[in-house]
Amino acid sequence: MAAMAALQSSMAGLSLSSNSFLGQRLSLPSFSPLPAKPTLKPCQVVAKLKRWERKKCKPNSLPILQKMHVKVGDTVKVIAGRDKGKIGEIAQVFRHSSMVLLKDINIKIKHMKSKEEGEPGQIIRIEAPIHSSNVMLYSKDKNVASRVGHKILEDGTQVRYLVKTGEVIDSAENWKKLKESKGKVEEAAVAAP
User: Which terms in the Gene Ontology molecular function aspect does this entry carry (predicted)?
Assistant: First the structure.
């Protein structure tokens, strides 16, 4: 408001001809401040997305996470895409985009430029994520892919099982094996450098 008053006083101080311009009184336009539009809080997505992608967010501006039928450590069979029919283990799950990363499946080639002069470029093979709808849980014992079901055991724990075979996936032994394998990987990573 102070800036508007200063502008009006400087306009009034112009010496055209004592308050008249060609016989008419000079009137200054009155400036009124524009109503401020309420700004919406932008969605701050934590997940790494392409810049043109926008994910739906909750009111606290966190992305909505998708429910998935697979977890880390599950054995799955690829049912669609270039690697259809391959069997692998899930290494990582991305719940914001409903994608999974399988060990040694969906390998992509990335060409890397040299970072320093005199250093040669590289061709790196990396595992790319697959959408979770393109994988199905797989039973190693019966060699069959099946949908997943949920049931509650006598002790009150809820577990996942394969519909075709009835094989329970979320057993205590499976979780122990998974934790042991993670521990070995972390120890190897610490010993490597």
Answer: RNA binding; structural constituent of ribosome
